[in-house]
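Notes taken during the Thursday session

The instructor put the following on the board and asked us to keep it in front of us for the whole hour. The protein is BHLH domain-containing protein. We were told not to look anything up and to reason only from what is written here. First, the residues (223 in total):
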Amino acid sequence: VMLKTTQSDEERKQQQQQCNDDAAAAAAAAADRRRELHLQSEQKRRDSIKLGYERLSEQVQSGGGTSDGGGKGAALSKATILQRSIRHMESLNRQRELQEAELDCLKKQVAALQVIEESYRQLLASGRLASSLSAAAASVRVPDSVKLAVFRGVMDELFDSFNSATGDASSFVELSGRSLAWLEHSCQPSAMRDLCDRVVRRVLAESNLSPAGGPALTSQSAL
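Then, after some discussion, the predicted structure tokens were revealed:
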């Protein structure tokens, strides 16, 4: 009985030792696996950084960055690569800003042309241009002196308006700003139509021009 008990205790000790050895081996294997994964991850990170620097170096040496020593194909330090890359990005940002400004200007021009087109559509719809080709107007021969008087009257009123809007400008910048404001306010199609209508009426009243055997020429037919 004593012998069996001793053998049983020895077997339990061996089993316990085996379990401990297995656990230690498993822990060591897990640690080795973690270490291997960490090394692989670190290597991938380093490879990615290296690849990134290589690509940046290709970009800056192919003309992407400004030259500060070292010809094409020469080895560049990481600091030089980063500096050139930053300058290249700044240059690209400036180009983008210029392109955006140009695009905004073109959009404004398109909008202005659309407004002008719509104004002419309304002008045609109202019959103002069609009336200028009417038989009554076509049958009247307007003297050049009357045409000149109309032109001069329009120009005089425009100059008076312009001079009133810009007369006390103290600098070219202020003159430029006031000129544009005057142009936008006083030279709109509706304002110009009213101005021409007013001048034509005045000139016709002064010249008493009328077609032979017909009514006096109106400003609408003259326009």
